[in-house]
Amino acid sequence: MTDRAATGHATTPITGVVITLNEAELIEACLASLSRVCSELIVVDSGSHDATCQIAERAGARVIHQPYLGDGYQKNVGPGAASNTWVLSLDADERLTEQAIQTILGLDLEATGHDGFAFRRRNFIGSRWVKRCGWYPDYCVRLYNRHRTGFSETRQHASVQAASAHRLDADLEHYSFANLGELFTKASGRFSNRSAKVMYLKGKRASAWSPFLHGINAFIRKYVFQRGFLAGVDGLSVALSAATNAYLKYAKLLEFQRDARVRDAENFDKVW
Fold first, then answer.
1. CA 68 → CA 73, 201, 239, 270, distances in Å?
2. CA angle 217-220-221, nearest 5°?
3. Among 2, 136, 165, 217, which residue's beta carbon has the most beta carbons within 10 A?
């Protein structure tokens, strides 16, 4: 066993960062995996009403309380308070695999010319790893030099803007949805609501054909071109949920345009 494997920390200190909101069921396992390679843990919480913060503190994390700013802005708060140059950012529903842990411990971050490292991400429904529909390998940069790069300053779908990232032969686990029901309720609920609000605020407009065209395009892309048909019921379900999300976000955008009563009843200050 190497000295690094024995100590459980990389030679170059790394700060693990997680953003949270009511993640009591998930945060302990996330922090436990981060603690295998990180000398510092930071949780940026946006107002949890459950035991998320207490669990995080018991796990040795420093909790920063920050009202939600949007995805990229929120994910840049923790790195700004980090003691170390290198940051490993995970979502609360993500875990490092043993393969990823050993790969990180083997990196020489002091000597590298890369500003970030990308991992493959295994996306799950329940305990089922979905390898089709564009859900794998789903590379994402999560380990990066905070002095050289960071998350894009966008309010949704932010990513680390590394200029010289290296793809590692290692996986993260992402427990995206607890079950098929959650796959559809999230797509039809807050995901489509948020997207419709964002599009409306940006001045985007939909036609009567937009919901149908975007919905069918999302289904064909997931089920045919990204080979969802090879993943059985889960592949079909992912394609249908993507179609549902795409259809509804444009239908809701069209509704905001055409129905003043619906639009006036919506609080556009609380997109997030």
1. 8, 18, 30, 10
2. 85
3. 165
